[in-house]
Amino acid sequence: MKLVKKLLREFLVGMLFGSMIYMLTNFYNVNLNHRIIYLFVCGLIGILTELFNNDNIKIIYAFILHFLGTFGLICILNLLLGDYEVFEMPYFTQFVILFLITYAIIWGISLMLFRNTTDKINDAIKKRNKH
């Protein structure tokens, strides 16, 4: 049951990130069905972040698997939405560049949030040890 709760939480966080990106870019603005598919795929990408919580997978392998899984899900998203031209040149090059930029921005935000949380925890531990 813990695993189901954890995966559901990651799914919802993925949808949250997807919603923020959607609001900032309005990238998939065609219709409600496309938006639902987009949010569902974002939720699946959120579940992929559980790779980083697995102690049996080295961080570099988790990163590679997350990157490839995310790229694959975004490709599937484009297929589901009928955006086949994205797989033709020169659109594919543009698609890959935009994907890399978006992925890097999201990773940067995630890293800043992680560091902020880690700093707060470390400060709390230092304060507790002083008293």
TrEMBL record:
The keyword Transmembrane applies. The chain crosses the membrane at residues 7-24, 36-52, 59-80, 92-114. Pfam families: DUF3021. Keywords: Membrane, Transmembrane, Transmembrane helix. The keyword Membrane applies. It comes from the Bacteria. This is DUF3021 domain-containing protein.
